[in-house]
Give the backbone structure.
Amino acid sequence: MSTANNMESTQPIIKLADLPRQEPFVLHADDRAAIEHETHHYEDPRAATIEALKIVQHRHGWVPDGAIPAIGQVLGIPGSDVEGVATFYNLIFRRPVGRHVIKVCDSVSCFLTGYDDVKKAFSAKLGVELGQTTPDGRFTLLPICCLGACDKGPVLMIDQDTHFDVAPDHIDQLLEQYK
Amino acid sequence: MSALPYAPHPDGDRKPLTYRVNLASPPDLKAYEAQDGYAALHKVVKEAPAEVTKAVKDANLRGRGGAGFPTGVKWGLVPMGADAPKNKYIVCNADEMEPGTFKDRLLMEGLPHQLVESMIVSGYAIQATRGYIFLRGEYVVAAERLNKAVAEAKAAGYLGQNILGSGWNFELFVHTGAGRYICGEETALINSLEGRRANPRAKPPFPQIAGLWGKPTVVNNVETLSNVPHIVLRGGAWFQGLSQGKSKDAGTKLYGISGRAKKTGCWELPFGTSAREILEEHAGGMKDGLKLKCWLPGGASTDFLMPEHLDLAMDFDTIAKAGSRMGTGLLTVVDDKQNIVSVVRNLEEFFARESCGWCTPCRDGLPWTEKLLYALEQGQGREGDIQTLEQLTHFLGPGKTFCAHAPGAMEPLQSALKYFRAEFEAGIAKAPAQAAA
Ligand SMILES: Cc1cc2nc3c(=O)[nH]c(=O)nc-3n(C[C@H](O)[C@H](O)[C@H](O)COP(=O)(O)O)c2cc1C
Ligand code: SF4
Ligand code: FES
């Protein structure tokens, strides 16, 4: 194995200059309008923070850095508060993810009915571990807690779709639906 | 027209919550109305709000979210009358994330109008100005169907200004979350709804006095609220009768089975049905070749019970006496092919990941617990690990942490240590034989 490969397998030192350059963030006019509309559902505009993050994520796939102060500005709260919320909730992504996000339930009932095998099959097929994205940017593989369909385990979600009674030999066919 | 405000239906008197459920295509407003839908709302708006709370108290409805708190008592703490704060809130806890629990999904996907009506009727009881259904973000189908039901109810005049000529105004919103188990804890839920990190709040003040935006707020589970229209229509005595003398708890309960049983699922049964009946009659027993090793009565945060406990009535007091909690009432069955250390490691991994990080015993103690269990699972445990785990069950137990998350996490661990100690001991690495020499 070459030294370069070894380097990759250890914790990399992140230099600012190495990070992918992000385009300056502009909040889309439709998104701004949607966020402003949401604020009317609550006594305090801050309550629309999560929805605002979801609106941005819907367009970009994740929440880019620049979106944080932009949302804060619309809601009239500090960007640091928006960041605090963005980093708390597991369905808000503060790092880029693949075009499709696979969330495999790893809670107890699915664990009892075959989670390990399903997870292993995904990792083998995609060549990634939990928390990673395939090099072609197509899939991100994540664990998720109980999806409330424990009688039909193993359960997983791909994007907004929930799949029940998943077995390792279904995986090829399943992934074909997500290009 | 009959004297009754509803049309008696054979299943309506046996399983009121689910007889109209249709998962493939839930009844729309018209279809729901044709099956007594919104009859309870028509009835209550002619009564004083206190009458509704009294009916719920008389029915002895207890919370279905896990703790079994009497619903009428909770509502009774809300300030009422002219001096009460102008804004009051009713919030439905539809966060359903307790591992092993899959009942609220059924009610929301299969009969969204029932929950919408329940929110309006319950909101009327406390004279709420607004209601929120706090729905977990992953329930995409439920969100779509609930939003449609809310829109239909609004168009029909069941929401908005001066509802059915009562002079009462009420709006209802479906709020979808973005994950994290702790959002189900009611004060964390309130923080989340306000757009903050979902850390729990100190109690008192209780939410009924100072909740959402500091205003009186009632938080109830989906299943709890879904009982209210039926109680309003048919009365407390009828509701008490639903449990058929199997329990002093009233009504029906959505029970279920997950794990490696033959026919896993969720069924509405009389409150206090025995665990054996649920497993053997409704789920058809364990899968062929498997034996029951132990079971969680109602979610990840309940103590394991053993096969000898199967004949117990699944109600709050009976299960508590056996050393566990009924919790959500959906059983997870563990079969004899499973290593208990692995199962508990899986449970604690969940709790460690979902800790909100607010208080130290939970934030640090749960990952430590998980680490010890992982080592035991790999056969790499060290002398004293089991004692450390036992200590952790005390340090993270009731009263030691800011909310019930960590004590809940300790329940399956402490019971597994009690019943299956040998399996934990087997995970301790043997000291090399000549170490001393
Ligand atoms: C960590 C934690 C998670 C909880 N999750 C839920 C949940 O997902 N759904 C729920 O209804 N109650 C949940 N609860 C219970 C709520 O705090 C609260 O007791 C319940 O919503 C009250 O409603 P009820 O009286 O109708 O049961 C949770 C409690 C804790 C401590
Ligand atoms: S016990 Fe855990 S979940 Fe509850 S407040 Fe403390 S850190 Fe948060
Ligand atoms: S444990 Fe996987 S859906 Fe509940």
In short: The first strand of chain B starts at residue 89 and ends at 94.
